[in-house]
Each structure stands twice: as C-alpha cells, then as structure tokens.
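=== RUN LOG ===
request id: a7f3
mode: sequence -> structure
chains: 1
length: 217
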Amino acid sequence: MKIRRKTIGFLLGILFTLGLVLLLSVVFRGEYPSRQTGRRTFVIDQNFTAVRKILVRNESAKEIITMGGGSEFVDQEWSSVGGELPAIELLADWKLELHGTLHVRTKDEYIGEHVIGLRQDVEITPDYLHSTTHLNEPAERLRAYDMKTLFDRDQSRKAKVTLELTQEILTDAPWFAHGIADRRVKQSVDKTLVNQEAAIRKLIAANIDDVPLFPLR
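=== RESULT ===
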C-alpha cells in the first residue's frame, strides 16, 4: 500500500512542528515553582513524658529542623514566654512557648548551599510538644518552607509523632517536564521525612536511659 506524497508531507510537517516546539522548550527553559507536601506519622515505643524530657533537655528544638539531612545548624536566637524549663515542669499545670529565629545552611541538590532564616515556634505542655517552622524570606530557588513536628501523648501514653513538610522550589524545567519536576521535589520532601523519623528514633534511643525521674508528668 503506497502512501501519498501529500500524506507524507503532512506527517513530516507534524514531526517538524513537534520537533520545533520541543527545541524551543529546551532553548527557552522557564522557571517552574513546584510546591509539594509530605506527611508522615509514627509512634515511638516509649512513654511520652520521657520523650518530651529528652527533646527539651537536649535542646532538640533546634535539631529537629536539621534532622532531614538537607541542612546544618548555624545559630539560633530564642525569646521565651511562660517560664523556663525545667523549673516550670514542677508546676501541676504548665505551658511553655518559645519563639525565635533559626539559621541553617542548606545542602539540597535543588537549592544549593545557602544560609537561610527560619521562624520557629515551639509550644510545650505536659502532653505535647509542637514545633512549627516557616521560611522568613525566599532564598534563591527555595521559595517556601513550612515544617510541622508534632509530638503528642496518645491513648496508650506513648509518643505519637506527626511530621509534615511543604516545600516550594523553583525548578529549571520546560512545560513538558513539570510532572518530572513535581515528582523529584516530592521525592525530596518524602526523603527528608524518612530521614527525620530515623534521626528522631535514634535520638530517643540514645538518651532514654538518662531521663530524670522528676517531674513525673
């Protein structure tokens, strides 16, 4: 069966057009902001009170943000409201709020190496320790960063941990590769959460034998 010249010309024209579109997409690459969120929940097989004491006495609030392996601690400035630990823990019903700025150096393949400022708010009571972190200003390709690290006492009095991370990264991807960029950024988010879980478990395991008896709650 012979193919007409007009048909061949038409097919060649389509192929040429597609090739031209792809070429232009590669030459004139656009910056695409990919915003991805990951969430991870797990239970530490230890009494929540012991876990909370470890986190507080090891100043783990500043370590939580770097537990993902994509950044390193630079410095931190705190202002506190509601009292100081451990003295405040001796009260029957207490609550401590910490607000400050945390500086870390990023080490992500997408973001590069930059020192960024993060606003960190921590709230601690006998039954939970909640930490939220927010990027103060966009830094190069990192346009947004929001991290929630929630430690709660569950019904069995153990520590239930919820990790949630949202990142928006400015990627260098043409329109047809937006899906690929989204998947890579999502993989980066999920990897960070997996690393954080492993680091938290390691921190608790390494310090569980040194938890002070008092206060009991």
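=== NOTES ===
Residues 19-25 have pLDDT under 50 and may be disordered.
The chain is about 30% helix and 40% strand.
=== END ===
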